[in-house]
User: Fold this.
Amino acid sequence: MARLLFFGRLMDAFGTSNETLALPANIADTSALRSWLDNDRQLGGILLEKTVRVAINDTIVSEPWPIADSDEIAFLPPVGGG
Amino acid sequence: MITLTDSPFDAAEALRDFEKRAIGAGAIVSFSGLVRGTSKLGKVKMLHLQAYAPMTQRGIAKAAADANARWSLDALTVIHRTGDLAPGEPIVFVATASAHRRAAFEAADFLMDYLKTEAVFWKKETTDSGAHWVEPRPEDYADRDRWSKTGT
Assistant:
């Protein structure tokens, strides 16, 4: 099971800050996951925004990046500073 | 020393602790940031601050290392809140110690610019008119750019 984390306004869009997900067999990288999730949850494209970055195991990756069921995958809107 | 905490902290106490650590330094500069009572959207009821702990911590540690490389510092400390904060509560505390004042002032300013623009935080403001996530202000980026323009 992959662990998904949602920060900032994405947390509100998903209605939770995290969830575990068995990655569908045909979802092998971050781009595919964005499209699949956005469609599955009917988010209207907010996960496809380029300003939303993805971190795998707490490191921001350049996409598309391969993902595995053991990964922690975080979706990060632009950071606002403290 | 870098602390991310969900619990309220006392900035005066943080400064006293820092003074003990920085004995021998000729100059100490400290900055306390408090939650403002008003925003563009009205009276602030609550501020919620979210971090991605390992990433947030690592980013601040990198900024602290940059400050240490750039200025001759005897000590520095950063305390940053997460979670729910009320207006007037301390949200951030930065202190720097050096032999002379200039390095301490500049390093503290540099660290605050990092914390206000690049640090990995998401901020939700609740006002009379509802709750919304705060995006960075353009002038925050301009403040940060000061440091790249001054060279070294």
Summary: Chain B has four helices and nine strands. Strands of chain B lie at 2-5, 27-34, 38-39, 42-51, 73-81, 83-85, 90-98, 121-127, 130-134. The interface with chain A takes residues 33, 49-50, 52, 54-55, 58, 80, 91-92, 115-124, 133-136, 140 of chain B (CB under 8 Å). Residues 53-70 of chain B form the longest helix (18 residues).
